[in-house]
């Protein structure tokens, strides 16, 4: 449940961060960078706070940011979207997801996701009073079978929530698979919400936004943000794009979730997006090296991690170590080895056997932090 004993149930990420702090473990759990984004962007925000805007932004977001997002998406992903009607600024990708689910899904209706899934997707479905239908993916490539996803559609299905690049697996879904899903959903009157928050962090392969593959523009909504791309996860500057009438419906919900989002951070991101190309290239290269460092470290202790195509995370099966309970292993690693992962099982239904022996480890951490983590693991192994 979302809460128990009169308090919110901590998310798995908060829970593991608290365990890491308690045991002074190297925290490779929660996915946030330990090095803040580019100086230039930070200065833009500082200036924006000092000079304003500091009062409520328009509900749809600052016009300058909507414009910059539309241009950025044209430049990188080749889509043309109207900044006035087809772009909504949100408080991070999380709000884009929750507001979209609440806008379109009625209690008792069904929403399909891949399993494992990001926790906020499941929570949004629960908040809407809807049924969460899960279609598992498996190692080594974690690609979903489009026919299995479409076979899960019933007359109560309202929405398919996809996440590419995918958290926690790092899979990037190829265009042919996505085209088939969009076509199948369009035929069945199902909307597709695509969480693309890791869009810029692809190391092998290429990101394609689902909006570029939607022939009518009426089936797909996409969400992304500045937080992951520019290593400012706490800023919560996100955006949703879709057909004008869909964006209007989500905006109606956003109005009563947060009303509007922080204007100074919006202004900073708006000014930075057009000049962000060089940083994005450096950041990709840096994260790729950190991914490889973590992969090598895990191999050195006899594990066989997957090499993710994208994102912040490596996943690894503990079966070679005779472990079947990832939650127990995550706590044991934290206590005894001084390294904190996240159990992938926590991103699956509790009834599910999917990936029950898998851990997720974040590589969006400085190389010396990753090296220290891997040394501790080697001493423990
Ligand atoms: N997106 C981050 C992760 O997957 C966590 C964000 C959060 O703690 N809610 O680790």
TrEMBL record:
E.C. number(s) listed in UniProt: 2.6.1.17
Cofactors that this protein relies on: pyridoxal 5'-phosphate
Keywords, ordered alphabetically: Aminotransferase, Pyridoxal phosphate, Transferase
InterPro entries (UniProt xref): Aminotransferase_I/II_large, Kynurenine-oxoglutarate_AT, PyrdxlP-dep_Trfase, PyrdxlP-dep_Trfase_major, PyrdxlP-dep_Trfase_small
Pfam family, any one: Aminotran_1_2
GO CC annotation terms, alphabetical: cytoplasm
Protein name per UniProt: N-succinyldiaminopimelate aminotransferase
Lineage summary: Bacteria, Bacillati, Actinomycetota, Actinomycetes, Micrococcales
């Amino acid at each position: 449940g979302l809460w128990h004993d009169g308090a919110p149930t901590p998310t798995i990420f908060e829970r593991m961060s608290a365990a890491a702090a308690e045991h002074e473990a190297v925290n490779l759990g929660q996915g946030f960078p330990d090095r803040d984004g580019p100086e230039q962007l930070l200065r833009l925000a500082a200036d924006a706070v000092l000079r304003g805007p500091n009062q409520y932004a328009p509900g749809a977001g600052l016009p300058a940011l909507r414009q910059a997002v539309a241009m950025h998406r044209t430049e990188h992903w080749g889509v043309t979207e109207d900044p006035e009607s087809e772009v909504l600024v949100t408080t991070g990708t999380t709000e884009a997801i929750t507001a979209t689910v609440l806008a379109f899904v009625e209690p008792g209706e069904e929403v399909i996701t891949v399993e494992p899934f990001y926790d906020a997707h499941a929570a949004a479905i629960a908040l809407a009073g809807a049924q969460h239908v899960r279609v598992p993916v498996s190692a080594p490539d974690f690609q979903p079978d489009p026919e299995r996803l479409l076979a899960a559609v019933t007359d109560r299905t309202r929405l398919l929530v996809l996440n590419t690049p995918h958290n926690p697996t790092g899979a990037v879904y190829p265009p042919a698979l996505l085209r088939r899903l969009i076509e199948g959903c369009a035929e069945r009157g199902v909307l597709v919400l695509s969480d693309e928050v890791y869009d810029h962090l692809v190391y092998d392969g290429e990101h394609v936004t689902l909006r570029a593959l939607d022939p009518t523009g009426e089936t797909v909504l996409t969400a992304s943000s500045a937080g992951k791309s520019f290593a400012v996860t706490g800023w919560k500057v996100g955006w949703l794009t879709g057909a004008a009438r869909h964006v209007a419906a989500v905006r109606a919900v956003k109005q009563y979730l947060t009303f509007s989002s922080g204007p100074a951070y919006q202004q900073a991101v708006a000014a930075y997006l057009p000049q962000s190309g060089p940083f994005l290239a450096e950041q990709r290269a840096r994260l790729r090296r950190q991914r490889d460092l973590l992969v090598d470290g895990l191999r050195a202790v006899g594990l066989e991690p997957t090499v993710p195509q994208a994102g912040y995370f490596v996943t690894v099966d503990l079966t070679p170590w005779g472990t079947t309970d990832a939650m127990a292993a995550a706590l044991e690693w934290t206590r005894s080895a001084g390294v904190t992962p996240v159990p992938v099982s926590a991103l699956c239904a509790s009834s599910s056997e999917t990936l029950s022996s898998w851990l997720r480890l974040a590589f969006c951490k400085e190389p010396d932090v990753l090296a220290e983590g891997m040394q501790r693991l080697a001493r423990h192994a």
